[in-house]
Batch of 2 targets.
Target 1
Amino acid sequence: MELRVIGCHGGETPRHRTCAFVVDDVLAIDAGSLTSGLEVKEQAKIEACLVSHAHLDHIRDLATIADNRCQLGCPPLVIAGTRETLRTLKKHFFNNVLWPDFAVIPTPAQPTIEYLELKPERPTMVAGRLVRAVHVTHTIDASAFVIEGSGGAIAYSGDTGPTERLWEVLNQQQDLRALLMEVSFPDREQRLATVSGHHTPQTLAIELQKFRAPKDLPTMLYHIKPVFQAEVERECAALKGLNLEVLQLMDHFVL
């Protein structure tokens, strides 16, 4: 299973891009920077996009990738998420006000996008991979994902603060190769992290101890706020007994 990091930050500057990852060139995880970070030919290869929740930094480039793929005449892009996430996208995003409804463009019979509802914890085939959505704790309906391929599984936390069910699921998961885990703010901003549903290094360390063997789990950190990048990295580097790596733009892993 190949993983490419297109965007991995909790904000945007010329040197930071919001969250978007691509598995095996065909399955995107979130869409904060799918078009700002991928060439048009790469965008055309994507078959589906898992959407963890409907906050703008995770969905923004669904608008522009739909536009590009419509012009290219690509097969429909499958947008997969929980019922509430898809409802929000339909009502507030692809609503013919904020952006055209590409679920009926160019025609209802041949749309640019299609929606696929992921029922919590029910395995669903998406772009040839078995996907489970697991509810996590954020300020709106939000999900983590467990993605299984022929070579093992990876997990993606989505935006979350301290949560429980995700760890129960991961502790039962066989052949878990890596966890993409959010951390956003430094410890001194704990109050802001708590009210916004995110982690600091101190809550991250507590959370990872809920996994059966945290030292053995490659944990790839993302969603650090650009303003706090150096501070969060220093605090994460000081954590003991964990297997942490801070993701960088255009990292490429074979897991």
Note: The helical segments are 40-45, 56-59, 62-72, 83-92, 165-172, 190-196, 201-208, 229-237.
Target 2
Amino acid sequence: MMLIIVKVGGSVIRKGVDNLVKEVPGLINNGHRVILIHGGGYFINELMERMGLKPKFVTSPSGVTSRYTDQETLRAYVMGMMYLNKDLVSRLQGVGVNAIGLSGVDGGLLRARRRESMVIIDERGRERVVDGGYTGKIESANKDFIMKLLNDGFTPVIAPIAMDNKTGGPLNVDGDQALEILSLFLMPKYAVILTDVDGVLINGKVINRVSAAKAQELFKNPEVRGGMKRKVYTAAQLASKGVYAIISNGVIDKPIMSAINGVGTHVIPTGNS
């Protein structure tokens, strides 16, 4: 029996989660425990545009792009993420998985510190400090709560919304960071990041196996851009702390076991061969 924590990227949800949904019952029936964390940025953008709001994005000095979350964006974010959450839960229930949908606010599952300010690169290429909005950095996970759910036979499906440590209010948090924190608290056998490509591509080829230190170098490679940059950073962080991390394709047949059996980019934990 193994615990597997899976981050399902928005790109996978957009292209279709049928293969993923079909795979989960077999994993559960074989005695494995699965936790799913999902993204869905594309859906938030569509929802905001329908509401007459313009999505805003900022880039950090290290090159990571993220959504800027003001009050109106936060409302759309919570609405959209919880819709995607319930859609995924209902699909899993439809194939016999006893899924339960949660945000990080529920049961204080993910507690975060609101970013009071952030450094961004402005349109002129200069560093500038702006208000942090309603974005959070996750600091802890409620391990006892999630273990109780797993022990009671539930399969948690988690939306990347965290609870503000100070106010209890919702915050937009990065789904890959949610995977990182939950994995560090629960120490799964595998942390799997599912996206819509076969892994980390350099010169058009998938990098198959790397150490945590090599993954840190990959993060700086100019070919690793956008959302993949964050995924490589997350995998490197996890591997450096003993968690086996995989970045793989979420739309292929049996995406979770395909990843575990060698597909994708495997970031080997420090201390493992």
Note: The two ends are 22 Å apart (CA to CA).
